[in-house]
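Schema walk-through. Below, the input block comes first and the output block second. Nothing else is stored per chain. Lengths vary across the set, and this one has 195 residues.
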Amino acid sequence: MEEKQITILPKLIAIGGSTGSLEVILNILPHLRHDFNIPILIVLHRMTQQDSSLSDLVASRSNMFVKEVEEKDPVSSGYIYLAPADYHVLIEKERTFSLDFSEKVEYSRPSIDVTFKSASDVYGDGLVCIVLSGANADGADGAAYAKSKGGFIIVEDPMEASVDYMPRQALKTKSVDLVLTTKEIIECLNLLERI
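--- output ---
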């Protein structure tokens, strides 16, 4: 991966995934720089019941604060936010979170598409979207929309993904900046704040 490819100053990193993606996230987080403080929003397709063990699991792998999104929470540096089960996560213009219980998108709530689109309306070229392993097309439309707003799009290498359908659907949009392995995603994220 060439350093010259990374030319943005991100204000938010939004990560979306489904089947097989939690393992990738748990591999990435411990390897982020100790002083990494760009807010990260993680949207995983989850069971409908609340599961506090996910927050505990993610927190055990990171030096950042970890919390499940709550209505009107501000987006703050140094935090990893988790989309709660059965709610879409939106970001308001004043950079606070909003939860939405509208219909499922791509059979999913939370929907990666919904979050990527909402975040890109607020952050524009300050948004990095990462699409990981998964078994449906959620995230592809959102990534394309984010790219149209100036966002930077990363997709997990389908050759490495546990389930390659989601990354491949994102690639079909022709809006992806980088296709990276887990190791390369770590390297990329650790370079972002150094620009």
